[in-house]
Amino acid sequence: MTHQPLSLKEKIGYGFGDAASSMFWKLFSMYLMFFYTDIFGIDAAIVGTMFLVTRIWDAAFDPVVGVIADRTASRYGKFRPYILWVAVPFGIAGVLTFSTPDLDVSGKIIYAYVTYSIMMMIYSLINVPYASLLGVMTADGRERTTLSSFRMVFAFLGSIIALALVDPLVKFFSETVQLSIPAAWQFTAAFFAALAVAFFWLNFAWTKERVQPIREEKPALKDDIRDLLGNWPWWILLGSGISALIFNSIRDGAAIYYFKYYVGDQSQVSLYFVLGQAFNIVGIVFVTPIAHKIGKKMTYMGAMAVATVLSIAFYWMDKSNLIGILVMQSLISVCAGSIFPLLWSMYADIADYSEWKTGRRATGLIFSSSSMSQKFGWTLGGALTGWLLAWFGFQANAVQSAEAQDGIKLMLSFFPAVGTVLSVIFILIYPLSEKKLAGITAELDQRRAEQNKSAD
Fold first, then answer.
1. pTM of the model as a whole
2. What's the N-to-C CA distance of the chain in angstroms?
3. Nearest to residue 135, comparing CAs of 151, 116, 115, 120?
4. Over the chain (456 residues), what is each successive 10-residue block's mean pLDDT?
């Protein structure tokens, strides 16, 4: 059962989960700062501090969820119950985050801290089990790569839905329905919340957990943590994932400054972002057959190596060559999109490696700690964006100096390339080849068969 081919319906069902998460992730990453400052009326510096505090707490909360999920036992499995029961609280928290109660300045700040913190904790409560589900739907490495690809395709589709519909929905609710602007944002969030709940429930209904731990007893938390810290492949993938997130975060964070202050046409940034999402999907579509042919490690290294060359070349793009800029963005996005299905598939392989080595399976902890590392990479990349802008003398809403303009160009070229180079170096020493994983899987299957035989 753990190696049977998964149906198209189940793969689509798994993808729905990340479509739900990604819609709100895009709302947070692209619009929440604007919402807090321009709609709710909170000072930008206060919002920045709030993001830093809440994101660090949110990242630290992920392993807690992973540990709890690993110790969950229900008729639905370990991870699927969270997708079923947390979906509605997820939607409600999303609406509350984009609500604007009539409060004084201090009240608004407290409300923002509380609702955003609750939202991100609930996000972890559903997203960590969702990510961990990949490790127990199948033990087949090729099927895991395919599942990861479906997940990423649906994630980027969810992102495109959000990017394409937010502004039209706010305009519809404010002008056609004639709600106030704050109420229009609240109703827009409610639309995405309802869609997300439906997607999560489809994810629950259309998937199944198959891979069961060989040993059912619940080990002490200290044993799980010791196993994780001694898992050398996990450390390598951790470094590679953080480096890749820094690459993405700096490029995404600097893009609007690039178009506003260097290209001189901020209106083109939406097209730049949408093209990036679309060509991320192209990379995901192509990565599965390539990885099946040459292996996950070689595919990952190749994609990051090409991204390095293209990122460096981006520095010399002339600001008048909009077509060239968009073509380069598309090519880089193909490479960037292709690596994330590989990363999540390799995390599932690491869960198998850990069980093979220690006799204990901690899928939730491995995926949650990996999710935590990615959030740290995203936070660090965002912080680097701000620090680099300040270093080069950036001044908001002013004509930028030559040094500042050059710094912005570097933030879309050489600085992200540092992240891709580091990612290649890490993955170069990743030890779990397809051949070794096949042996590990076979031995785990033999252990399960012997356990089942002895149980009979």
1. 0.72
2. 18
3. 151
4. 77 95 82 78 74 76 84 89 96 96 93 92 92 86 83 87 85 93 95 97 94 62 76 89 87 81 82 86 87 91 96 94 95 91 84 82 70 70 73 77 92 94 94 86 82 65
Closest alpha carbon to 351 in 46, 204, 166, 134: 134
Alpha helices for 392-433 (secondary structure H): 402-411, 414-428
Domains of the chain, earliest start first: 1-212 (1.20.1250.20), 220-439 (1.20.1250.20)
Both tokens of residue 147? 């599942």
CA distance 292 to 146: 9
Sequence-distant (6+) residues with CB within 8 A of 408 are: 254, 257, 258, 261, 262, 389, 392, 394, 400
d(CA 7, CA 255) in angstroms, rounded, equals 39
Phi, psi of 77 (to 5 degrees): 110, -165
- The answer to whether the beta carbons of residues 94 and 200 sit under 8 Å apart is no
Longest Cα pair distance anywhere in the chain, in angstroms? 77
> Residue length, the chain?
456
No. of helices (H) and no. of strands (E), the chain: 16, 0
Q: Contact, 369 vs 62, CB < 8 A?
A: yes
Closest by Cα among 123, 104, 103 to 32: 123
**CA contacts within 13 A on the Cβ side of 389:** 19
Query: What gap in Å lies between CA 428 and CA 83, rounded to an integer?
Result: 35
